[in-house]
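Reopening this one. Same input as before:
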Amino acid sequence: MKLPKPLPLYPTYNELKHINLKEYPELSAFLKDSPDWYLQHWQWGLEFLKYVGRNKSEHTFSRFRNETERFLTWLFLVKKEPMDGLRKQAILEYADFCWKPPVAWIGLAAYDRFQQSGGLYRVNSKWLPFRLKTPKNQDDHLLDKKKYKPSQETLKSIFTGLIAFYKYLINEEICYGNPAQVAKTDCRYFIADAQVKEVRRLTEDQWQYVLDIALSLTEQDHTYERSLFVVATLKTLFLRISELSERKDWSPEMRHFWQDEDKNWWLKVYGKGRKLRDISVPSQYLDYLKRYRKYRALSPIPSSYDTSPIVEKIRGQGGMTARHLTRLVQQIFDKAYEEMKAKKGEESAKKLQEASTHWLRHTGASMEIERGRALKDLSEDLGHASMATTDTIYVQSENKKRAASGKDRKVN
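Same output, byte for byte:
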């Protein structure tokens, strides 16, 4: 049976806060022409996402919106039963659906859900609830949607979002049980994973090419000082790209660099879970901070009154967004890849084609482990809620030793 084309249910958080269904004609018509419980469930999702948007990060809101929207779409168009009456088996059916969704529901890129036209928000026909991610530098036309399969991380995200939605409704005394919580333990697609994982990081050689290219570009064009500073900061201070970017609830400013009474430097960061933390700043990094501030015609060291953004916009006022920072880093990665490929061959440079900004955080942390830094100290700088998370990086470093010790085993 061919399923109807899915419809996006929720816009961005800023639009969601003051949403008027009359401004969303296709969505309004769909809910109006459906059984009454469709609108009721849509409103439950609306209130849940407003709660998430108020209390969580922008990234968390987007993730929960994806899962809430996808689950309600399945309820409306496939299951056609209210969620407050579902049991474990129904949630497992939903997991089956997510494991192998209809090809017509799978896209190859992320698109806005709605587009403004004539004062109304029209459905973007390109939007689809599932996405087959395109590997970097691979042609979309070579991808086969029939081969879509969610990763273990995606499966976890599906259940995390669904469990949180049910918990919210339980707290609101709308639902009286959480079948998603029960179903998670019985989902046949979860795999107990004890395999050796490869940390998504650059080798020391690859990192040196990235740094050298950034330094070389600054000699040709001073505007690359910003790019040099960004890659050095992400790697050396183990920052997530969001922690260096301008956000609605936080602006990284130069005054967030501060010195304690023992002359130690720190950077105050607003991280995941809406938590502030202080990251230790190594002495060598200060040279990069000073040269970047010199480029911006600022004093060598920031004062406690310096409210200028840590990374300023190319045009206009304020700090740069995560998207703009990502472009700067990607440009350096691409140039480093070409340089390393020419000098050392495709195999040596290949990872630079795959690398994302988050690899710099992992690269810096892995190198710290390898130089023997205490796990507890590194965990504090990384902002991990548990040392067990940091220990994952340590385990990868230990696997290198394990592999080296196993190379000389004999067959006979």
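So the earlier flakiness isn't reproducible anymore. For the record, The CA atoms of residues 37 and 43 lie 10 Å apart.
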